[in-house]
Structure formats: structure tokens, C-alpha cells
Specification:
Layout (H helix, E strand, L loop, with lengths): L1 H20 L15 H7 L13 E11 L4 E8 L2 E8 H4 L1 H8 L6 E10 L5 E12 L15 H6 L1 H7 L1 H23 L3 E2 L5 E2 L11 E4 L4 E5 L4 H9 L4 E9 L11 E10 L3 H19 L4 E4 L2 E4 L5 E4 H7 L9 H10 L10 H12 L8 E7 L15 E9 L2 E8 L4 H16 L10 H9 L4 E7 H9 L21 H6 L8
Helix pairs in contact: 6-7, 7-9, 7-15, 8-14, 10-12, 11-12, 13-14
Keywords: Aminoacyl-tRNA synthetase, ATP-binding, Cytoplasm, Ligase, Magnesium, Metal-binding, Nucleotide-binding, Protein biosynthesis
Enzyme class: ligase
GO cellular component, one term: cytosol
């Protein structure tokens, strides 16, 4: 089979040389196009059989199908808007050009010129007066029925996936639309987009393990950011009242259908607001995106129906635990530890009470929350950057948005008391010294900024990748990342190497 693939590659290179010998540059610099496939199909749908467009069109595309022999042959070319049929005929192209037309392979990119007409079967097509080879494809496209089905190959060779699976491209067009809508909505509300460093002197802004690198000129270690939070809060200190940043964050953690080591997040901060305000904003952003991208607030995700119609359920973390059979309300620490041990929480004897509550929540609540739910009022111990709850001792004003068992957003009434923040970061530093790689760092510059005075504020981080997964009904985060992280090809499973040779010539 490998010999077969090698032979296919050789045939294509031989054709490359044939084009050169006929005086046609297989990799020219430019082609002046004036139309796209989909608009032409729509514009000339009412064209009658036998009629032609008054003028010629110039279109580019990749050859996806070919049929016909002798003195006439059809091909289908694909551009970014869709596919259109082209018709090449010996007496229109001339003998030399028609011979080259017949030598085109699936995957070749061509520019065509000709008038629009309708075939006897009613298909809008381009009758070629000329064509130009714009790029000779030296590797065959996957065979139609068996080629690019394996997920691992599709992720690794996304460029081929996009060519042969149009629905994949549609997901990423929708992703772009989600991002654009969020930006426009925030800008209409007076928010400005900013950029903050990706390389951080110390980790901070979230409970996560960072990637570490080293800067040679400064002779110092640096961390890929796990969140932009602490820099955005510095901007609130500096007088910005509504800011957001959308970009990559990096977390050196496990991979799953909803986790990738780098992903896109938007963090939004609004001065003189609290977590109730950003809760309403979060709901509005998701609903706006759903209406535009999914076309409805009733969507399907991973085989279940999700209703995004507001208002969404709001429930405290402790009440949510009670709803799911874990009642720890008004129980002392010893009772909570005993219950956690009974429920199978590992290390319940050693970790703090707040972490025990989080472990119980992660196990019994979050996976079972299917419809949009704001889980509010989290343990103080696990939220070192959030303001203490105004009415509930031991808790903070924080919410997580959960949909279909996934956390889509995390938000606080932001802690702006520099003395309280210092004490909490001291405790985090102790945890880090004891081996907790996810604990916050003691960031003196951030604390100094708070001492100048940060207004009360609400802030929220929203996972863009998970939101796109939800709105496009994609089973894995890798389906909404153009180039998800993969092991090197040498470490890929044997099945992957075998499937690659199912490619064929297609003629």
C-alpha cells in the first residue's frame, strides 16, 4: 500500500513536469478573479437552458471532482463559498489547453474564465474559454468514502479536513462570528479591548499549573499566562472603567473533550459593578451569540436538548449540593470531613474544608447540571481574589456558569481591599511552598497597585472554545480548535499510519 501511495505521488510530479514542458507555470503569482461560486449559483439559478450570461466571469477554486472523457469533460471546483461546476470542451479550449485540462488532478487549484450557462440537468455551470493552473497539488486528496474519517488524522491534518469536509469550515466561520458578536456587544456597552502580557514574571489570576519558560537576556524564568486577571485589575486602578481582553491562556493540565493546554478566554472587568451585574452581562452575551449562530435558544449538544432562554437558574453552591443529595448546610468541619470520606472524596482528612466542598461539588453537582445554571457563593478558601460575601460568612461573591456539565464562565465581585488581599495571598504562598503548584503567587506589584485604590468591580472570564462547542454542537474542544495539540506523528497509534494510505488519485 505504501508503494501504491508512492506511485501516486510520482504520477503527480510527472504531471507537474508536463505542465512545465507545455509552458504553463504550475505555481504562478496572481490571478484576477471577480466572482465566487455561491453568489453565481444564486444569481443565475433562474437562467433558462440554452441561455448564457452576457459576460464572462473569472473564478478560482480547487478541483474536487472530474467526469467525462473524449472531447468534453466536467469538473467541480470549490472556493471558500462553495462549489460550482465547470465545463471544458476541446473546440473551445483548443487542443493543447484541453489536453492540459484533462491532466488536472483532484486537489489542483485553478482559475477559470467563461460564461455561465445551465446544463440539461439544470445545473448552473461555467463554460470554459480558458483556465490557468494556479497551484499543482502534489499530494492526492483522501478517497471519498474512506479517506479522512479518523479523528486523529483530521486534527493533525486540519488543512485537508477543511478541504474535504465543508461542515468543518462552517464551525470555524461560526466561531469567528461568536467572537465578533461578543466584541461588538461589549463595545456598544462602552468596553474597550486591551492587551496585556502573555509572559508573566509569576503565575497568578487563577488556580492552575503554568507552563514555565526562560528568558535568556533577562536570565530569569517566566510563565505563560494562566489568566490576564491581575493585569486587567491594574488597569482599573489606572482609571479604565470597562475593559476586556480576549486571547490565549495556557494551563499545564490534563486533556479531555473539554480541556486543551491552550485555549481562548475573554476576561471582562467593570468598575462600580459586582457579580450580579456581570451575571446579567454573561447571560446577555451567551444569548446574543446563540440567537445569531445557532438561530435559536433551544439547541442540541452531545445528544441532549439545552434551553438557553433566560432567565437562567441561580442557586448557591451549598443549596446545589443539597439538591444533589449532599447536605452540608450548618454542618461543622468534622461532620463535613466524615461525609466527604463516606462519599469517596480522596484525601478528605488532609485538605481544607473549602477544597472538600469543591471536591464534593465537582463530583456530585457540576456533571449533573445540564441546563444553564449560575452556581453562586463559593468557599472563601478556594477564591483568594474574590470579595467576601456581604451576608454569608466563610463565602465569597463568586459564580460559575454551568451548561451541559461544563463550566463556561467564572466571575467575582472583585476583591479590592489591599490588606485582605495581602493576607489571602500570604496563605496562598504558604500552600505553594508546601507543594501546591496551582496556588497564587505573592505578587507585590499587584498588591502595590491595589494600595493606590481599585474601585469596586465585577469581573468574569468566559471560555470561548467551550461556548463555541455548545453553540455548534461539537463533541470535543478539539473540534473547535483549528490546530489542537497532538502527540508527534512518531508516537501516533499504528491505525493512523495505516489510514493515511487510503488516499487515491480520484480520476
Amino acid at each position: 500500500m505504501n508503494d501504491e501511495l508512492s506511485e501516486l505521488l510520482k504520477v503527480r510530479r510527472d504531471k507537474l513536469n508536463e505542465f512545465k514542458a507545455q509552458g504553463m507555470d504550475p505555481f504562478p503569482y496572481h490571478f484576477e478573479k471577480d466572482n465566487y461560486a455561491a453568489p453565481l449559483l444564486e444569481k443565475f439559478q433562474t437562467l433558462k437552458e440554452g441561455d448564457e450570461s452576457p459576460s464572462e466571469v473569472r473564478v478560482t477554486g480547487r478541483v474536487m471532482t472530474k467526469r467525462g472523457h473524449g472531447k468534453a469533460a466536467f469538473a467541480t471546483i470549490q472556493d471558500e463559498t462553495g462549489r460550482i461546476q465547470v465545463y471544458g470542451k476541446l473546440d473551445l479550449l483548443g487542443e493543447q489547453k484541453y489536453e492540459l485540462y484533462q491532466k488536472l488532478d483532484l486537489g489542483d487549484i485553478i482559475g477559470v474564465k467563461g460564461k455561465i450557462f445551465k446544463t440539461k440537468t439544470g445545473e448552473v455551470s461555467i463554460k470554459l474559454s480558458d483556465f490557468t493552473l494556479l497551484c499543482k497539488s502534489l499530494h492526492p486528496l483522501p478517497e471519498k468514502w474512506h479517506g479522512l474519517q479518523d479523528k486523529e488524522i483530521r486534527y493533525r491534518e486540519r488543512y485537508v479536513d477543511l478541504i474535504v469536509n465543508p461542515e468543518v469550515k462552517d464551525v470555524f466561520v461560526k466561531r469567528s462570528k461568536v467572537v465578533s458578536l461578543i466584541r461588538h456587544t461589549l463595545e456598544d456597552k462602552g468596553f474597550i479591548e486591551v492587551e496585556t502580557p502573555i509572559l508573566h514574571i509569576m503565575q497568578g489570576g487563577a488556580a492552575a499549573k503554568p507552563f514555565e519558560t526562560f528568558h535568556d537576556a533577562l536570565n530569569m524564568p517566566l510563565f505563560m499566562r494562566i489568566a490576564p486577571e491581575l493585569y486587567l485589575k491594574r488597569l482599573l486602578v489606572g482609571g479604565f472603567e470597562k475593559v476586556y481582553e480576549m486571547g490565549r491562556v495556557f494551563r499545564n493540565e490534563g486533556m479531555s473533550y473539554k480541556h486543551n493546554p491552550e485555549y481562548t478566554m475573554i476576561e471582562i472587568y467593570q468598575a462600580f459593578a459586582d457579580y450580579n451585574n456581570v451575571m446579567a452581562l454573561t447571560e446577555e452575551l451567551v444569548v446574543t451569540a446563540a440567537k445569531a449562530v445557532a438561530g435559536s435558544l433551544e439547541i442540541e449538544f452531545r445528544g441532549e436538548k439545552i434551553n438557553l432562554a433566560p432567565p437562567w437558574k441561580r442557586i448557591s453552591l451549598l443549596e446545589a449540593l443539597k439538591e444533589h443529595g449532599v447536605d452540608i448546610i450548618n454542618k461543622d468541619e468534622a461532620a463535613i470531613r466524615r461525609l466527604a470520606k463516606e462519599k469517596g472524596i480522596e484525601g478528605a482528612e488532609e485538605i481544607g474544608q473549602g477544597k472538600i466542598i469543591n471536591e464534593l461539588y465537582d463530583k456530585f453537582v457540576e456533571p449533573n447540571l445540564r441546563q444553564p445554571t449560575f452556581i453562586t457563593d463559593h468557599p472563601l478558601e478556594t477564591s483568594p481574589l474574590a470579595k467576601k460575601h456581604r451576608d454569608k460568612p466563610g463565602q465569597v461573591e463568586r459564580f460559575e456558569l454551568i451548561i451541559a456539565g461544563m463550566e463556561l464562565a467564572n466571575a467575582f465581585s472583585e476583591l479590592n481591599d489591599p490588606l485582605d488581599q495581602r493576607e489571602r495571598l500570604k496563605k496562598q504562598a504558604e500552600l505553594k511552598a508546601a507543594g501546591d503548584t496551582e496556588a497564587e503567587s505573592m505578587d507585590e506589584d499587584f498588591l502595590r497597585a491595589l494600595e493606590y485604590g481599585m474601585p469596586p468591580a465585577g469581573g468574569v472570564g468566559i471560555g470561548i472554545d467551550r461556548l463555541v462547542m455548545l453553540l455548534t454542537n461539537q463533541a470535543s474542544i478539539r473540534d473547535v480548535l483549528l490546530f489542537p495539540h497532538m502527540k508527534p506523528l512518531q508516537q501516533a497509534k499504528p491505525k493512523e499510519a495505516e489510514l493515511k494510505i487510503l488516499d487515491h488519485e480520484g480520476n
